[in-house]
Target: Fumarylpyruvate hydrolase
Amino acid sequence: MAFVFPAPPQASLAVQGTDERFPVRRIFCVGRNYEAHAREMGNDPDREPPFFFTKPSDAACDTPLTIPYPPLTEDLHHEIELVIAIGKGGANIAARDVPDHIWGASVGIDLTRRDLQAEAKETRRPWDWGKAFDLSAPIAAIKPIADVPSLTNGRIWLAVNGVVRQDADIADLIWSVSDHIATLSQSITLAPGDIVMTGTPAGVAAIVEGDVITGGVEGIAELEVAIGPRA
Model:
C-alpha cells in the first residue's frame, strides 16, 4: 500500500513493568458518571442511560509530562478518571462478559477547555472544541488486568500543587465499568486498542500555568502532569 505522504505514527501508551506499548485506536469518554459531579455541573444526577463523547487517539500521552496551556481558552479544568483499555473487541457485549474484553486499567485526566464546552452547550453544538484538543488525555502507564485489584472500588483522587481537590471512590460510579462498556458496545463495535475514560468525581476546577497535578486510582496507577506556558 502506498500513501501520498508518510502515515502518522501509531498513538500508544506505556505499559507498567515492560517496554511494550499499548496501541491506542480510539478514546471514548463517559459523561456525568458520578452523582456529585453531575450536581456541581448543574445537571440532574438521576440514573439515565450513559452518554459518550470522544477524543482523538493522539490526544493520549504518557505521564509524567509537561503540557503547554492550550490555545483558545481561559478556563482549563482537570477531571481525574479511571481508564479502561480494551483488548478484545465486540458488539452488543453483555455486562457480565465485559471483564473478558478488558486488557488493563490506568488513571488519566480528561483536560477540558470549560469555557469552550459551556459555549457549545449553550449553542447546542458538539463538545469537540472543549474536549478533543492536543494532549488532552494524559494517561499513566497501563496495568494489565491480571494485576488490577478491583474495578469496582478504590480511592480516586487528584491534587493541584499538593492540595487535594478531587477525592472519591470508584464505587461511586453511577454506571459501573461493565454497565457502561456494555452500553457503548450496543452503538459501536469495540476493538482492541480502544480506551474508555469512565467519568470524573466532584471537585473539578481550573488550572493555570505552573500548576503541578498529581492523582491516581488506588492499586492501579498514579500520574503527574505539569502545566507549562501557553502554546
In short: The two ends are 36 Å apart (CA to CA). The longest helix spans residues 177-187. Residues 12-230 form a domain with the Fumarylacetoacetate hydrolase; domain 2 fold (CATH 3.90.850.10).
